[in-house]
Write a structure and sequence with these properties.
Oligomer: single chain
Strand content: 25-35%
Strand order of the largest sheet: 7-6-5-8-9
Radius of gyration: 35 Å
CATH topology of the largest domain: N Utilization Substance Protein A, Chain:P, domain 4
CATH class of the largest domain: Alpha Beta
Low-confidence stretches: none
Order of helices and strands: HHEEEHEHEEEEEHHEEHHEHEEHHEH
């Protein structure tokens, strides 16, 4: 068991792990080995011996009163000793003191060596998996790049991303795009799971609004450095998207910076998204103004926000000329769907003509009532 600290350092360098975490993993391996080859009911600790660069394995026995129920429990009794029995070894011992009995695993021969080897492999592999899991869990919603290694019969695309393989399911691909082995592609991390049966599973997406936002950050320096913020975004993948932009600098035009000269920046993002049209809108914290902007290209007359008293949900009632209704709805309802997603509200369209007819009808009823009253008094 000599020079175990050197081994820990070598493992840390090879696997890209922190030395202190490797040492803790090795301690666990030594403790589990001691339980297997000595006694599974004993309580063990492993401590670093810096002089020999090895681990000292120590059995811990806690001193308890004579009538302590733990002494009668066969599951935990080996970790405890009565104060009467303990004072037969040391008459100075007190309650709750811990007796330490050293053990040398080398005395247990090849059985211990073989068991320790398996335990070290298991704990290091678990440490590597935990590190990878934490790394990619923190990357959810961020952009990764990888090479396609396989496409299965369900059209799920498997991508090699650094030290792990991720999957891009068919449902997370933009309509019309396909990949083959060897292609390099970009996507955002959508989900990260880990279980005993399948290990780490990383799901990617190219249909998430986050993918659009990450691509914009690559193409638009003002977004990358925080001068422009993507406040909200909504997509119907491969068809159309709307993004709400906010400038944090008085001299930066959020929409102009994002679109770029002659649209070069926004076109580069659109090309990655298989020709998806991207509407850039200046964000406003005033709901009525913001909704009037996101309904573009339709020109609207007014916006009224109505709150449901029961569930507190909000609805936007938009009044607009009849010739603007088709633009507000958009092809296959795309424009109004995106506006609803971006605003987080249901949207109801009311034509000006309908409002005028209702007003005229109310006025007529009022006039008829007045005429009836006059006739009554005459």
């Amino acid at each position: 068991m000599e020079k175990i600290l050197d081994i820990a350092e070598a493992i840390a360098n090879e696997k890209g792990l922190k030395s202190d975490k490797v040492i803790e993993a090795l301690k666990s391996a030594f403790i589990q080995t001691a339980k297997k080859v000595i006694n599974p009911k004993f309580a063990f600790e492993a401590s670093v011996n810096h002089e020999t660069k090895s681990f000292d394995i120590i059995q811990i026995i806690t001193v308890v009163p004579e009538d302590d129920p733990k002494l009668q429990d066969p599951q935990v009794a080996p970790a405890y000793i009565s104060i009467k029995e303990a004072r037969e070894y040391d008459d100075q011992v007190e309650l709750d003191d811990q007796l330490q009995i050293p053990h040398n695993l080398e005395e247990y021969g090849r059985t211990a060596a073989s068991s320790l080897h398996r335990e070290i492999e298991y704990h290091i592999q678990k440490l590597v998996e935990d590190e990878i899991f934490s790394k990619y869990k923190s990357k959810i919603g961020t952009l990764v790049t990888g090479r396609v290694t396989r496409v299965d019969n369900k059209n799920a695309t498997y991508i090699e991303v650094d030290e792990i393989r991720a999957v891009l399911p068919m449902k997370n691909r933009i309509k019309g795009e396909s990949f083959k082995v060897g292609d390099h592609l970009r996507a955002v991390v959508r989900k990260v799971n880990m279980d005993k049966e399948n290990g780490i599973q990383i799901e990617l997406s190219r249909t998430s609004p986050k993918f659009l936002e990450e691509l914009l950050a690559l193409e638009v320096p003002e977004i990358a450095d925080g001068a422009v913020i993507v406040q909200k975004s909504a997509r119907i993948p491969g068809e159309r998207a709307k993004i709400a932009l906010l400038s944090t600098h008085p001299q930066v035009d959020a929409v102009g910076a994002t679109v770029g000269v002659k649209g070069v920046r926004i076109n580069a993002v659109s090309q990655e998204l298989i020709g998806e049209n991207i509407d850039c809108i200046e964000y406003s914290s005033i709901p009525e103004l913001f909704i009037s902007r996101i309904m573009s290209p339709a020109i609207i007359s007014s916006v009224e926000i109505v709150t449901d008293p029961k569930d507190k949900s909000q609805k936007a009632i938009i009044t607009l000329p009849s010739d603007q209704k088709s633009k507000a709805i958009g092809k296959n309802g795309i424009n109004i769907r995106l506006a609803s997603m971006l605003s987080g509200m249901d949207i109801e369209l009311v034509e000006n003509d309908a409002v005028s007819r209702k007003t005229d009808s109310q006025a007529k009823e009022s006039n008829d009532g007045m005429d009836a009253l006059k006739a009554l008094f005459n």
